[in-house]
Amino acid sequence: MATHDESRPLINGLLSQVPDIDPAETGEWVDSLDGLIDDRGGPRARYVLLNLLKRARERNVAIPTSITTPYVNTIGVHEEPYFPGDEIMERRYRSWNRWNAAVMVTRAQRPEIGVGGHISSYASVATLYEVGLNHFFRGKDHPGGGDQIYFQGHASPGVYSRAFLEGRLTAEQLDGFRQEHSHDGGGLPSYPHPRQMPDFWEFPTVSMGLGPAGAIYQAWTNRYLHNRGIKDTSQQNVWAFLGDGEMDEPESRGMLQLAAQQQLDNLTFVVNCNLQRLDGPVRGNGKIVQELEAFFRGAGWNVIKVIWGREWDTLLNADKDRALVNLMNTTPDGDFQTYKANDGAFVREHFFGRDPRTKQLVEKMTDDEIWALKRGGHDYRKIYAAYASATEHTGQPTVILAHTIKGYGLGSGFAGRNSTHQMKKLKADDLKSLRDTLHIPITDEELEADPYAPPYYHPGMDAPEIQYMLDRRRRLGGFVPERRANPAPVTLPGDKTYEILKKGSGQQEVATTMAFVRLLKDLIKDKEFGKRVVPIIPDEARTFGLDAIFPTAKIFNTLGQNYLAVDRELMLSYKESESGQIMHTGINEAGSAAAFQAVGTSYATQGEVMVPFYIFYSMFGFQRTGDQFWAAGDQLTRGFIIGATAGRTTLTGEGLQHADGHSPILAATNTAIVQYDAAYGYEIRHIVRDGIQRMYGENESRDQNVMYYLTVYNEPMTQPAEPEDVDIDGILRGIHKVATAEGEGPRAQILASGVGVPWALEAKELLAKDWGVQADVWSVTSWNELRRDGLQVEQHNFLHPEEPAREAYLTTKLAGAQGPFVATSDFDHLVPDQIRQWVPGDYAVLGADGFGFSDTRAAARRYFKIDGPSVATRVLQQLARRGEVAADAPARAIEKYRLHDVKAGTSGNAGGDS
């Protein structure tokens, strides 16, 4: 029987059932520890144990990682590197930055404007930015390539203010903050928006949580480009500045494992731990820094804590009993926030006064000296040491947890207050106090001249401080942030690459998903262009038939494949490689969308055209990651979004949360999305070719900053060959005719998209055979693009009444078409209903509204009344209203086709992966 000690975990469950081979020796060590605790106390014992653990790691003794460390700086005073800059000079213009940022937001609140802004976020992060901008962040002209910096969205006033001192922005432009159209000469967007300032901002970050995700996948993409020989990115780093409150977003923490697994030591997170979110403390009863340390350590990251400024070093050195460290460890964040909302006397009593030993430590200090004890995030030397350590660390990504104060330096009315985030302007007394604190050479008279417009400060471009600032940036390779969109030209694929889908599928039934995959394979094979194609797949490659490219294109992994694949003997074996072409992100749509965004902006971030094809299980694209597609539009991403397994009824058997009947509507709200719902492979070939030409071709007159979204289906069907007289312009603009009625009788027009086109053709046959009605069938490749064209025409006619009225493309295309119009698709009514006002005649719409469900395709389509017989019956209803068929024809059709019986449905077949 096992003894009691042998059967229990020994240390917090980290070790289990480990037999003791020398109990006497173990007992001696335990006795020694007991003696240390008895003689010197718990804090001293903790310190000794941590040093023993450190020494064990240095001697390559494998031990469980400590999940947290004491609430002190990770880097000791004796480990700090020499600070290479002129700290006095840098502090001086950092003060000017602080002043101008606060003034800019205050001026934006002048009575006739009142557009708001955030003062306090930059106040807390200024030192973190300035150390990086003066010593670490590389511009695009650096020989090793530029770094990618994800600035905190709410801190944008500070970035604008620095650009003002650098001569990149004028005072007039600062006065246009948040007035992008109404301000003469142009204004500045509220946050980092590349679409609004395409030469300045690189990364949109203010939709909190998306910045961390984007930074991780940007760092991964940099490794991808390097390992595949596209570009040497070995000297480039990705820096992401985040808020501690922002770290509660699922996207902020949910992708940390990738960075650790892929050993992305080119990535550094800097978390601005000012202990506050938008309304109050992040963890009033706890310690967010400790929580984040544990979380990041558990995810495999290198963690550096910057908690206390240099003024604390003397106190910590004198703290022989570690009583001060114990106070730091046990004080909750809510109290730390309260301390900085009061004064030195309050801190003396309520912090140091809690232990007689710590009270004695500060007995010779004045209240002002106690108040001047800085937090680490505001100390140049501490931050420099952390950044230097992060850039030198290898094998892991690094997170720097910097303890700061929200509203730092803005006075007692701002610093540490719960309402700080919502405070938009400084009052007269606040301005004077800030001016004095920052030593800004502005008089009371200048401040009182217009209380709503305190002056900016700039000493002139010849001032030594400005010249020093500019020299630092020159040495680091130019200004940051800066965006450049001048990629090296690429040779686009020729006609032969696209021919695979021209001839159809013969007797074989092929789903449009598989038709697309066949085209993708040929694109990858293209000698010039193929290496730039980046398939991005969230663990559904086999569903989409993409496992066929595993052995040749291979799956990207920075570590390669260090195991023996279970399917290695199969032709379609799973194959990973350091230079793989496929980005396989696992069950992770948010990560896939972040990868799509990083790859699709390589033309700007790296000057290299890369073409992402993000292929997802349709419901989990726009439904699940719509915010990321919005950010991708902001970042001017280019690429292809493939919504595979599309449709509310086509994904047979999968049910409510898989049946996508509305993504085209969600996509329609994103101006950067060009959406198509193709029925046939030959349509896909023209759409993909047009997308590549538009986004990556030279001398392209259209807006190139778009993403093409194609919905494709998993339902096998016979793919027709491309007609000799195919209407390519119609395919690309949104509608072309695929069948023309022949014979006598009442006429009608059927509009359908995607898998709905075969039902429309079925309805055409039923109408002719059973009712003597002749119907033309149109494939609507893009309801969304037809709507946008119509809206543009209406806007032009509205604003230019003196010019001849223009006509929507759809109206022109359908002019002369006889009879009523009926539309169907595998989507919500809202999708085809978008074009109603430009249809030149009576228009009826069928749609699959509501939740999907598990059933056969035919039964589901009959349930939603979108199948062939339902279309035919709706056409008869329209004709009956016009008096062109008997009034009872619709009722007879309902009975004949048993429309109320879901078992009677026949539109669609079985098969297709789901």
Number of helices: 37
The secondary-structure class comes to alpha/beta
> What percent strand?
5-15%
Q: Percentage of helical residues?
A: 25-40%
User: Sheet bearing the most strands, described?
Assistant: 6 strands, parallel
What average pLDDT do the residues reach?
A: 92
Which runs of at least 5 residues are low in confidence (pLDDT < 50)?
A: 1-17, 418-423
Order of strands side by side in the largest beta sheet? 9-6-10-11-13-12
How far is the N terminus from the C terminus?
A: 53 Å
Shape: globular
Tally of extended strands?
Answer: 18
What integer value in Å does the Rg equal?
A: 33 Å
Write a structural description.
The structure is a single chain. This protein is α/β, with parallel strands linked by helices and 914 residues long. It contains 37 helices and 18 strands. The strands form four sheets. Strands 9-6-10-11-13-12 form a six-stranded parallel beta sheet, with helices on both faces. Helix 34 (830-833) links the parallel strand 17 and strand 18. The longest helix has 21 residues, at 87-107. Mean pLDDT is 92; it is low at 1-17 and 418-423.
Write the topology of this structure:
Blueprint: H1 23-40, H2 42-58, H3 87-107, H4 120-135, E1 148-150, H5 156-165, H6 171-174, H7 210-227, E2 238-243, H8 250-253, H9 256-261, E3 267-273, H10 288-299, E4 302-306, H11 313-318, H12 323-330, H13 333-339, H14 344-350, H15 356-361, H16 367-371, H17 380-392, E5 398-403, H18 428-438, H19 444-449, H20 464-475, H21 495-498, H22 512-525, E6 533-537, H23 541-544, H24 550-553, E7 555-556, E8 576-577, E9 583-584, H25 589-599, H26 602-605, E10 611-617, H27 622-634, E11 639-644, H28 663-668, E12 673-676, H29 681-696, E13 707-711, H30 728-733, E14 736-739, E15 747-752, H31 756-771, E16 774-779, H32 783-799, H33 809-814, E17 821-824, H34 830-833, E18 843-845, H35 857-864, H36 868-881, H37 889-897
Parallel strand pairs: 1-2, 2-3, 3-5, 4-5, 6-9, 6-10, 7-8, 10-11, 11-13, 12-13, 15-16, 15-17, 17-18
Antiparallel strand pairs: 14-16
Helix pairs in contact: 1-2, 3-4, 3-5, 3-20, 4-17, 7-25, 25-27, 31-36, 36-37
